[in-house]
Specification:
This protein has 264 residues and is an alpha+beta fold. It folds into 2 domains: 202 residues, BirA Bifunctional Protein, domain 2; 44 residues, SH3 type barrels, CATH 2.30.30. Helices cover 25% and strands 34% of the residues. The strands form 2 sheets. Strands 1, 2, 3, 4, 5, 6, 7 and 8 form an 8-stranded mixed β-sheet that branches. β9 and β10 form a beta hairpin. α4 crosses α5. The N and C termini lie far apart (43 Å). The chain binds biotin (BTN). Biotin binds next to α3, β2, β4, β7 and β8.
């Protein structure tokens, strides 16, 4: 008989100790055991803390997590990170479509610093390439920006086991051979976010990092537009709004929404 060791709860004190001292003073962080979606909880926290620079909510489990294109996002207890950040819209100059790409870069840089080198798949997937060359999705980012507020939701599979994964192409850091502390990851992301917001930077140098990390570029892809028929194309670049530049039968087009499947 095999007995499963229960998964541990997030350690709030450890998250705080992993953040840099400057963010610790300005941060409002809620660590929950279970919630429908941290994206909803962070909005409530935001409303209770007017004027905050950075508000964040994380939970061990989400019961109704949301993904891109109205999909569900699975967050079984203690097995991943579900983290939502809320900050004033005026703190970041980016157009809304650039925000998930920039946070993709931050997530990849933080995971690299934690010893897990990941790549990105356009627009907002965190991926690794398996030994057989297949792209495995480990996580994703969902961001919204309105006149007042930006909400960034980060979902990442840390120790999900194969039967817990939603699709065959999904994976977790542990299945790919990486052990990363959830608290260290969250602490570092909070610090990186706070640095980004304090810099009030309008430069787009980070876009070059996105291009370097993006596994979609220079590949043949199948484009599944949100409202149309799938077609093959070559992914060649990222435009200034975060759109995917493709060559379709010799003509350049920009894909702004939809799913991309890497062909080779
Ligand atoms: C995707 O579809 O790839 C994006 C997934 C984003 C999931 C995160 S988990 C934290 C936050 N809360 C949610 O309900 N969704 C985002």
């Amino acid at each position: 008989m095999t007995t499963k060791v229960p998964r541990a709860r997030l350690d709030s004190a450890r998250i705080h100790s992993e953040t840099s001292p400057t963010v610790r003073d300005a941060l409002i962080l809620q660590v929950l055991e279970s919630v429908s979606s941290t994206n909803d909880a962070v909005l409530e926290l935001w409303a209770e803390n007017p004027g905050a620079l950075l508000v964040a909510c994380t939970a061990d489990e989400q019961t109704a997590g949301r993904g891109r294109l109205d999909r569900t996002w699975m967050s079984p207890f203690g097995a991943g990170v579900a983290l939502s950040l809320a900050f004033p819209a005026k703190a970041i100059a980016h157009v809304p479509t650039l925000i998930p790409l920039h946070f993709g870069v931050l997530v990849a840089q933080v995971l690299e610093a934690c010893g897990a080198p990941v790549r990105l798949k356009w627009p907002n997937d965190i991926v690794m390439t398996s030994e057989t060359g297949e792209i495995r999705k480990l996580g994703g980012i969902l961001a919204t920006k309105n006149a007042d507020i930006v909400v960034v939701g980060i979902g990442l599979n840390f120790s999900l086991e194969r039967p817990e994964l939603p699709t065959e192409t999904a994976s977790s850091l542990s299945l790919e051979g990486f052990t990363v502390s959830r608290e260290e990851f969250i602490g570092r992301i909070l610090s990186a976010t706070s640095e980004l917001l304090r810099a009030e930077s309008t430069d787009d140098a980070w876009l070059a990092d996105y291009v370097n990390l993006c596994s979609t570029l220079e590949r043949e892809v199948m484009v599944h537009p949100a409202d149309g028929v799938a077609f093959k194309a070559l992914a060649t670049g990222i435009d200034e709004h975060g759109g995917l530049v493709i060559l379709r039968e010799g003509s350049q087009e920009i894909v702004t929404v939809g799913d991309i499947v890497h062909l080779r």
